[in-house]
Amino acid sequence: VIAVSPKITEISSDISINEGGNVSLTCIATGRPDPTITWRHISPKAVGFISEDEYLEITGITREQSGEYECSASNDVAAPVVQRVKVTVNYPPYISDVKSTGVPVGQKGILLCEASAVPSADFQWYKDDKRLAEGQKGLKVENKAFFSRLTFFNVSEQDYGNYTCVASNQLGNTNASMILYGE
To answer: Which of 72, 91, 110 is the last residue of a domain?
Structure first.
């Protein structure tokens, strides 16, 4: 019998899936003797193998299960060969942190809205029911992947009140309210 080192001949492509969906990954390898195939999740929390054959099935995937999955084919003839598949789990925005802020008149004030989402959330700000436009006098809106910052350069009495941050992506939206108040 001629020994042949393992070779991965077919592996699933990177995949993007909505949270709650089912994922099926395949890793086919050749070699002599037939290689043993294992799958593992490359993640700080992951422990050991999650599948000990060519197929990895995940039903009702969660956001914690996103990341890279590594297929390893080994048959003791040579070092195992490994390849990775990236699994992106999409989920609607979730606002993780909002803080009301007290600011004296004439000072600079900041309202912050933090949200996690995949794909990244788009943010909008409202005061009462009026949408705040970028470039409105005395205001600045900064949107990043995971947060939005609303800055008032020179707080006036008229600025005090209730503000709503809306975070949205293709899968949904959520909002949270906070108050800018006088000190």
So the answer is: 91
